Amino acid sequence: MKKAQGRKMKIEIPVGKGRPTKPDQSAKLSNELGIIARNFLLLPNKWKELTREDKDAALIRCHERFEINLDEHYVKDSCEDILKNKSRQWHYKLKQLFENARSEEEARKIEVPELTPENWNRLCDMWINPEHKGKTNPEGVEPDRIEFYKHTHYTSEKGWSSLEAETHYNNMTDLKDLYTSGESSMTIDEIVDTILGTKSGYIKGLGYGPKPNTTRSTQRRTAELEDSLKKAKQEASQIEDQQSQIQDQQSQIQSLNSQLNTIVARKRKCLEKCNFFLAHRHQG
């Protein structure tokens, strides 16, 4: 992605952000990685099935478009994370096309511009395979860790396993509403790790995962997010209070208008009586 002068757009990803903080950089990078995921990346059943060479080849294409320092591990990991999400989204959309077809024969006739007929048929073969159906959830994508956490800590019969579990879930959904869109967005994994924390070889809510990065910057990022969430809740509470005050003021205004109308009506009647009295007095 180059500017009019022929220079590449510079992409900067600050530590702890996971993506560019400048809206134009974030949008361009996300769009380009989406194009790469659709046109140049293999479509495995799972992301981990891609080889290191496949991922690096995709990131090299990104480097050709932007001025971006992929030698920085955090920048490279952030781009790879965005690419992974784009790949999953593309995989999900393709499977939706397949499932919306009325029959297998009709599904195989679908033309996807980004795929060759051979690759599309390979995907159809995979989705038709009973063994594949048994390995994926109904949506064909990996589970949302936030909802998986609820599934393992909440039942309709007994409710939440503890008050702490309910608080964790509410905080995660609050962060999801605040940070899964816009320039300061977060992935579901980042949200869960922020609220629950991580330890080597284990991801809370799923029971497995990589060794986390427990640097000071990560801790500082966690503190910043918790502070942002607290401020957002305070602002929401203030807005509710302001709305309540406005409603009270509107009620008071309506009451005053009613009283004013009553006073005006009384004065009008009084004036009518005075005019009537004066008219009869002049006649007398």
Characteristic terms for this protein:
two-stranded parallel ribbon; elongated; single chain; mainly alpha; 284 residues; two-stranded antiparallel sheet
Description:
It is a single chain. The chain has helices at about 25-40, 50-65, 75-100, 105-110, 115-130, 130-135, 145-155, 165-180, 190-195, 215-284, and strands at about 10, 65, 155, 160, 200, 200-205. By secondary structure, it is mainly α. The longest helix is centred in the last third of the chain and has 68 residues, at about 215-284. The radius of gyration is 31 Å and the shape is elongated. Residues about 140 and about 200-215 have low confidence and may be disordered.
Average pLDDT level: 78
End-to-end separation in angstroms reads 99 Å
> In which range does the helix fraction lie?
55-70%
Estimate what percentage of residues fall within beta strands.
Answer: under 5%
Widest β-sheet, arrangement of strands: 1-2
Question: Unreliable segments (pLDDT under 50, ≥5 consecutive)?
Answer: 138-142, 199-214
Strand tally = 6
Overall morphology: elongated
**DSSP summary: helix tally:** 10
The major pleated sheet works out as: 2 strands, parallel
Q: Compute the CA-based radius of gyration.
A: 31 Å
H/E element order: EHHEHHHHHEEHHEEH
Q: What would you call the structural class?
A: mainly alpha
Keywords: Coiled coil
Organism: Solanum commersonii
Protein name: Transposase, Ptta/En/Spm, plant
